[in-house]
Amino acid sequence: MAESGLKKKGILAELFSTFFSKSWPMWVGGILLAVGNISLFIVLKPWGASGGIKNWGDSLYNSIGMDLSTMGPLLKFPYSVLCIMTLVGALAGALLSKQFGLRFPPPGELLKGFLGGIIMAIGAMVGVSCTIGGFLSGWPALSMGAVVYALGLTLGTWIAVKYLLFEIEKMPKLSSGKTSSFLTAGKGRGGWQPILGVLVIIGGLIIAFNYTGSSSVLAWYTAIGIFFGLVCQRSRFCIVRALREPFMSGDSKPAVAVMVSILATMFGFVVIKFMGLRPAMMWVWPHFWVPAIIGGTIFGIGMTISGGCVVGSLWRAGEGHVKLIAALIGFALSAPLVVKYISKPFLEGLPENLKQQVFLPDHIGYGASVGVFVLLILLWYVFVKWNERTGKFSAF
Amino acid sequence: MAAIVLDTLGLKCPQPILKMAIKAKELQPGDSLEILADCPSFPVDVKAWCDRTGKVLLFCSDDGTGKFSAQVQF
Fold first, then answer.
1. A11 in a domain, yes or no?
2. Which member of A57, A64, A333, A368 has the greatest number of CB atoms within 10 A?
3. Is B27 touching A (CB cutoff 8 A)?
4. Chain B interface, best mutation among A235, A240, A248, A321, by max B CB count within 10 A
5. What contacts A9, CB < 8 A, 6 or more positions away?
6. What is the pLDDT of residues A349-391, one digit of tens each?
7. Exposed, middle or buried by CB within 10 Å (0-12, 13-18, 19+), for A382?
8. Which CATH architecture has domain B3-73?
9. ipTM for this model
């Protein structure tokens, strides 16, 4: 019996170690995120992030008496709940793998995080989406605006990489200075982290269960949010890396992981739309092509400077990176003001033919549309692999 | 043959690799560069950088506290 008990403990410890001792391959994360994204679409709508963080800001401003338009109360708007729980899920992942730690960067880096968050907010509000709604979910939704948005993201990333290289050579002091970290695990300490991680997961599931009485949608968004955060943290799934590395190290793996995620998501989205389970125009944003190229470029600059897009900031904030917490604060504080003073007047003044909703199957049918998007991904794959071998576009 | 130490503790990606790439321009064949980092992405990044640039990654070890030490032979 004792031997059997020991063996059983060993097997469970091995299982835990499989999930929480080493990072998962990013492409595995991409497939799991696709499963979560398709599930969200079945529950209500596909994955998006910028609207949720904007709602954090709306709620804050409204709580201090400012009358800003809001998409709903903080804990009743599905996307603000999804964002909160993504952060919670990443916190759980970091704790379970003993990777949590409050990490304070030099002041210059903290400032870059905050400013990057503001720039991302401008890009997301002008471009009517972010890397998730306008790219990771936008391509599978067969939106041509998402293709333009991705071009903008790429251009913005390229510009910001040039800036980062300039900064590191000409202004190295900006990223230098005192750094500190707290609560990190180490030899003989931090044993509390996995225990707290389990409690965080249980707490999150209790919240999800509590929502079932009032809204099954919010219950599912809570559970899937935890799942997203956990998967992103464990696989270090990062769209910034996917778009940045071809211009920096040349590494193609992050880009391939995003391609895998888009393809897997597209499979589910096409079935859902084709079968009429959800409206076909869902996640086809009215941003083809001017808002998409301008917004995408600005967002690409912001995310590269801060080091994470909205979701990348969420999961790294859950890990304890204070720079990305600053990015989220910058985004949440500025997004409501950007809508009021910049993006709303800009979008309202733009002629209708420059801000269209273009759903490709309306023009060439579902089969050809899927073919076009698969071809685009194939071209992207060939580019990143060719660039990895030749280094033509890589900085080093 | 110089042995240089580059401290990037407290910086998250891509700063450690950027600083390393800039420092690499000062080094000659035979030199070695030791990099200290605590960004969880660093081990993957330094390996990719070495593969990409043809440098030899002698080791990249975790001291058990989330701090990495990598040595690259030029």
1. no
2. A57
3. no
4. A248
5. none
6. 999 999 999 999 999 999 999 999 999 999 999 999 999 999 8
7. exposed
8. 2-Layer Sandwich (3.30)
9. 0.87
